[in-house]
Specification:
2 copies of one chain form a homodimer.
Chain A (H helix, E strand, L loop, with lengths): L2 E6 L7 H16 L3 E6 L5 H12 L5 H8 L1 H16 L4 E4 L6 E3 L8 E4 L2 H8 L3 E5 L2 E3 L5 E3 L4 H13 L3 E6 L20 E3 H9 L7 H9 L4 E5 L8 E4 L12 E17 L4 H11 L4 E8 L4 E9 L3 H15 L3 E14 L9 H11 L6 E5 L2 E7 L3 H11 L9
């Protein structure tokens, strides 16, 4: 008999029929003897409908009132799910974020969970009830409704699991797990049985948008076993996200992430002096442009070349800023390229296995793919290449590291 | 500078444009220097949409979860109204029933307000904010969401006005006030400037569905001046509902109410003995059939005739019960008539003016209208007549009591 927190996203509860499916799935767990706490999102489309109503009135609605407005979306779902559970003989009770005291800071629309008062939930579990909690929302010290931002229901689920010391937090979604890479790019992509929190963070932040990053951080911090499952297919085991110790050495590489939304900017011939990096990146950051990869090379003539990548939507803005900086610093020229992508190899196995970078470069070179930038971290190697090589590059690496195989030799 | 509580119903906030109209109207009051607390209902159609979702899952959804579900309707409106107010430069803040601690009992879907913690609202008023409160909803001791039943937003408004000791509670609706009778029946019907709480109760319970009865009782109990106004026409004064003292003698008759949904049943030749009324009405009440008028006549032969009216939808059910009772009691016969209506003359002036009943009977007799039953209370005389006489009867009484005139001689 385990205590399980399950989270169902907007698509999984997108209609009355789907809500009834979720109820049946929850009941299966109950019938097996498990205690279940369910966290749900708003029915798909509902949050957008509410935002459209507000935007029909004002382009700049207050964040406090937007939270009051959009939090009704999950409140509708919790009531409907309880009604569906009760109909099939499953005792259930719903709670809004405020009712279960999901205490957050007051940063409306992007609040952070500070504490959960789980006394009432525990009492319900003890009484044999399924507890259904509205995801995505909380309440601040003043009693005002807050929301955690899009995808925040994942975080609610993980926080509930941590507070209740649940045996597992299951995130039901429209995919059946985490893959070695995007199956739309590499049809041979394989579903992973396990992945570490760190690897998942790298995979998620690089574009595998299965889970909200913050929820993975949270799960890692509180060591909540997290499982990604399909809400549309029965019987799958999904992918379990755990601490490293449990499966270290199982594979050198977990998967290949990529990001199509990159653009790269280079400032050439900058007189090399202390503080030059700050002088270049300072104005960019002040303009709220996030910088991803950074590479600097010093030339022999006392100047330096400095290259960084930004989100493609910020490319023009960054270019304008950089041109001004170049003039101030007396740099030779500024060049940019918005037609690039980033491909990353992710895996905790890198820590203990040498030669992964050279194997990666060899695989790309064999296909004639020119590497424009390289950046490495402890469990990730990222390269920037021309966008036309994205699919070819991902497939070449997937083959080279034998990710399609059931197990790595 | 007055403190005014305004309530806008579902039709008045039925679209984004109408919500913006409400915001403009509230701002006019603010600009005049008044403090304003606004109570709003769900946008028209929204409550029904939510109920339909629940009913698509279950015919018997739990009352607790239904309250969680439908209370989202008002929550959407309060947020949108605040956004609209802020857009036109009016500082505003929204509160759900739970946030403003509208404490009720735990009778889900028909809860009664027990207390309001108005500290937060007072602080906002002091800070120059318009406070927007979700009508129709509250919270019980356990922290569960409750609703007051349909039309409960009126009660919320009156309760807020009572708690805040507001100068006036204004109910904005789709009519511009309370009329001497239904203008669809008597085109000469006149809008009343004033009416007493007691008269309004009689008018409301008899079918003038302008205000929820409970809100009028509440206003009377706490002596909250209540005004009914149109939310679609500017500048009208509406109808003020006040304590009797303020306008006693102003008019003998406030208006004429009527009810088309009546049916009448008679049991004849019942052996007259103590407790016979209970023996007849007991089984009717046990079947949850509400009895309205009751008339009993004792004949000379030691038997009695007993007549009562019920809602027309309960007619068949009541007839079946009465037939059984008649057999048990050895009564002569049971007769019924579902084609009757009730017409009532309402006015506190009756207390001090004799001859009103006879004037009423004379007016009806002059038109050849046969009176089937009569029932009187302190401020009301009701007659039952054949339904074909409804319009004729209402107009005859409206003329006889000169209700169309600006003032009664």
């Amino acid at each position: 008999m385990a205590l399980i927190v399950q989270k169902y996203g907007g698509t999984s509860v997108g209609s009355v029929e789907r809500i009834e499916n979720v109820a049946r799935r929850v009941k299966q767990h109950r019938d097996r003897g498990d205690d279940v706490v369910v966290v749900v999102s708003a029915m798909s489309g509902e949050t957008n409908r509410l935002i459209a109503l507000a935007n029909a009135i004002s382009d700049t609605p207050s964040a406090r009132e937007m939270d009051v407005l959009v939090s009704t979306g999950e409140q509708v779902t919790i009531a409907l799910l309880c009604i569906a559970l009760q109909k099939i003989g499953c005792n259930a009770r719903s709670y809004t974020g405020a009712q279960v005291h999901i205490l957050t800071d007051s940063a409306h629309s992007k609040a952070r969970i500070m504490d959960i008062d789980h006394a009432r939930v525990c009492a319900d579990i003890k009484a044999g009830r399924v507890v259904v909690v509205a995801g995505f929302q909380g309440v601040d010290e003043a009693g005002d409704i807050t929301t955690l931002g899009r995808g925040g229901s994942d975080t609610t689920a993980v926080a509930m699991a941590a507070a209740l010391k649940a045996d597992e937090c299951q995130i039901f979604t429209d995919v059946d797990g985490v893959y070695t890479t995007d199956p739309r790019v590499e049809p041979k992509a394989r579903k992973l049985d396990r992945i570490t929190f760190e690897e998942m963070l790298e995979m998620a932040s690089l574009g595998s948008k299965v889970l909200q990053i913050r929820s993975v951080e949270f799960a890692g911090k509180y060591n909540v076993p997290l499982r990604v499952l399909s809400s549309f297919e029965d019987g799958g085991e999904g992918t379990l996200i755990t601490l490293e110790e449990e499966h270290v050495e199982a594979a050198k590489i977990a998967g290949i992430a990529f990001n199509r939304d990159e653009a790269k900017l280079t400032i050439r011939g900058v007189p090399d002096q202390p503080g030059v990096a700050y002088k270049i990146l300072g104005p960019v950051g002040e303009a709220n442009v996030e910088v991803d990869m950074i590479v600097q090379n010093v030339a022999n003539d006392g100047t330096t070349d400095f290259t960084f990548t930004v989100n493609r939507s910020d490319y023009r803005k960054a270019l304008d800023i950089l041109n001004k900086t170049a003039a101030e610093l007396g740099a030779r020229e500024v060049v940019g390229d918005a037609k690039i992508v980033k491909i990353s190899l992710v895996g905790v196995g890198m820590r203990s296995h040498a030669g992964i970078a050279s194997k990666m470069f060899a695989a790309l070179s064999k296909e004639g793919i020119n590497i424009l930038m390289i950046s490495t971290s402890e469990i990730k190697i990222s390269v920037v290449v021309d966008e036309k090589y994205l699919e070819l590059g991902v497939r070449a690496l997937h083959d080279a590291f034998e990710l399609a195989e059931e197990s790595v030799a």
